[in-house]
Amino acid sequence: MVKIGLQIRATLENIDEIKTNHPNYSFFFKLKCSNCGEQSEKWHDLTENEKQHENSRNPNGFNFFMKCKLCSRENSIDIIEGTNDAYTADDSGKFKVVVCLDCRGVEPVDFSPKAGWLVKAADNGQAFEDVDLSEDDWVEYDNKNKVSIGIYEFESNFIKLKK
Ligand code: ZN
């Protein structure tokens, strides 16, 4: 069992904070089997309030479950409750962990932010829902404060966390 933190970094312009719409936000990851090294080419999604593979052995199920195509090992991931965090103006330009994952037999190697982000403009400005960060840059206009706002150079990586 490995605990992994998803870190993001972006440059925020006139924005107070961005965060995922958890527990309904779907994280899209490319995954690698820790046993045989098989790496998926497709994106797998996991959502905190959705469970997969519920059965008598795992009555609570997992946020994500897959049987490795190559080595047949059963791998699973759960989002660790209460680890979702916002990325704020103070974090701008720095990496910050925004969610922690409990990984069993499989690890994420790539993250796609896609849609479902909540954005709050600075100085009590406009709030935006279901923002799509697929393009890595996002520009809007805050009608309340009459300024342009933006999210630029979105990046992500993963770090192993101490138990
Ligand atoms: Zn495998």
Our Rg estimate from Cα atoms comes to 17 Å
Strand order of the largest sheet: 5-6-8-1-13-12
Ligand inventory reads: zinc ion
Terminal residue distance: 9 Å
Low-confidence stretches: none
**Class per helix and strand makeup:** mainly beta
Largest sheet descriptor: 6 strands, antiparallel
Proportion in helices: under 10%
Provide the residue-averaged pLDDT.
95
**How many beta-strand segments?**
13
How many helices in DSSP terms? Answer: 0
Strand and helix order: EEEEEEEEEEEEE
3D shape: elongated
- Beta content: over 45%
Account of the 3D structure:
It is built from no helices and 13 strands. The protein is mostly beta strands. The protein has strands at about 1-15, 15-20, 25-35, 45, 65, 75-80, 85-90, 95-105, 105-110, 115-120, 125-130, 140, 145-160. A six-stranded antiparallel sheet has the order 5-6-8-1-13-12, with no helix packed on it. It has a four-stranded antiparallel sheet with strand order 7-2-10-11, with no helix packed on it. The mean pLDDT is about 95. The chain has a domain at about 1-15 and about 20-115 and about 155-160. Bound molecules: zinc ion (ZN). Zinc ion binds near residues 38 and 73. Zinc ion binds next to loops.
